[in-house]
């Protein structure tokens, strides 16, 4: 299996399919690059070089004790881009991966990232504070940490319901989709998944968003129960000059089903634009 070595020696697993303009896909918490398998296939078939990595602590990458922070995550993506000799890059991120894509672009993408797309992404900042009074109370994230520590297997099974909107009337999400969420989640290290809760909830991407000077497409499910749209996409679009926002009525946080079909059409239209 292909790996690159990060600056601290961590082994970062990645998939690399096709040829052409590169697209780097960043996955959400607590998943891995498998979450993007359909998009990787579609992109490679459409003439792009489709790349997705397992964030450190997730999937098949090293479960490092240290380095579980957004700056390191973004630096790992930069190392991946350097090792593969990538430029003219499109970056795509879902949820926590959206934050990773934004920080990578702001800190490492000058002159080589040409487009950014996010879906259900965490920027600008999730947690409630004096400077972010509309955010999600810290107690909600404390509950996530407690779930990971107490019985992460059952916690992930339960989390798959709001993640994909399976707890909403009329949901068509399959049990198989929820089972795969559990499978991917269980690959993440306990310590690393626990540490990442603070990363996705407390990292402030305001300045990163302001620094983006390339076309950006921001997608968000209207019924997202994990990253509320009012605290995320609706604020992010005002911070990125010329960004485009699309809201998907009735759609959840997880990318699956009809939401995935519509989002993929929009993403590829954005890639070609």
In a few lines, what is going on in this structure?
The chain is α/β, with parallel strands linked by helices. It has helices at residues 37-45, 70-83, 96-108, 138-164, 175-187, 190-202, 206-211, 233-236, 257-272, and strands spanning 3-5, 11-17, 22-26, 49-53, 89-94, 113-119, 216-221, 244-248. The protein has a single domain, classed as Rossmann fold, CATH 3.40.50.
> What would the principal axes of the Cα set say about the shape?
globular
Name given to the CATH architecture:
3-Layer(aba) Sandwich
Structural class: alpha/beta
State the distance separating the first and last CA atoms: 33 Å
Count the domains: 1
Helix content bin: 40-55%
Profile the largest sheet: 8 strands, mixed
Strand order of the largest sheet: 1-2-4-3-5-6-7-8
Q: Identify the CATH homologous superfamily.
A: Alpha/Beta hydrolase fold, catalytic domain
Q: What's the number of helices?
A: 9
Average pLDDT figure: 98
Give the topology string: H per helix, E per strand.
Answer: EEEHEHEHEHHHHEHEH
Q: Give the total of beta strands.
A: 8
User: What is Rg?
Assistant: 17 Å
List the helices and strands and how they pair.
Layout: E1 3-5, E2 11-17, E3 22-26, H1 37-45, E4 49-53, H2 70-83, E5 89-94, H3 96-108, E6 113-119, H4 138-164, H5 175-187, H6 190-202, H7 206-211, E7 216-221, H8 233-236, E8 244-248, H9 257-272
Parallel strand pairs: 3-4, 3-5, 5-6, 6-7, 7-8
Antiparallel strand pairs: 1-2, 2-4
């Amino acid at each position: 299996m292909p790996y690159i070595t990060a600056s601290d020696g961590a082994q970062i697993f990645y998939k690399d399919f096709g040829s052409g303009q590169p697209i780097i896909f960043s996955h959400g918490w607590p998943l891995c690059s498998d979450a993007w398998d359909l998009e990787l296939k579609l992109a490679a078939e459409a003439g792009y070089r489709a790349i997705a990595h397992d964030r450190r602590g997730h999937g098949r990458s090293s479960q490092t004790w240290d380095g579980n922070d957004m700056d390191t995550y973004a630096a790992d993506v930069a190392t991946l881009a350097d090792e593969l000799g990538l430029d003219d890059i499109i970056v795509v991120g879902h949820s926590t991966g959206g934050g990773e894509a934004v920080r990578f672009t702001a800190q490492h993408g000058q002159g080589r990232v040409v487009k950014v797309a996010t879906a259900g992404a965490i920027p600008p900042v999730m947690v409630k504070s004096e400077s972010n009074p509309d955010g999600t109370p810290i107690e909600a994230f404390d509950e996530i940490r407690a779930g990971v520590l107490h019985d992460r297997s059952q916690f992930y099974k339960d989390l798959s319901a709001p993640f994909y909107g399976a707890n909403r009337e009329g949901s068509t999400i399959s049990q198989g989709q929820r089972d795969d969420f559990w499978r991917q989640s269980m690959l993440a290290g306990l310590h690393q998944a626990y540490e990442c809760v603070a990363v996705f909830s407390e990292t402030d991407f305001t300045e990163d968003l302001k620094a983006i000077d390339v076309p950006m497409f921001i997608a968000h499910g209207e019924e997202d129960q994990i990253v509320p749209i009012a605290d995320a996409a609706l604020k992010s679009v005002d911070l990125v000059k010329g960004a485009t926002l699309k809201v998907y009525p009735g759609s959840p946080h997880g990318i699956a089903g009809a939401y995935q079909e519509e989002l993929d059409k929009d993403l590829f239209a954005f890639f070609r634009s």
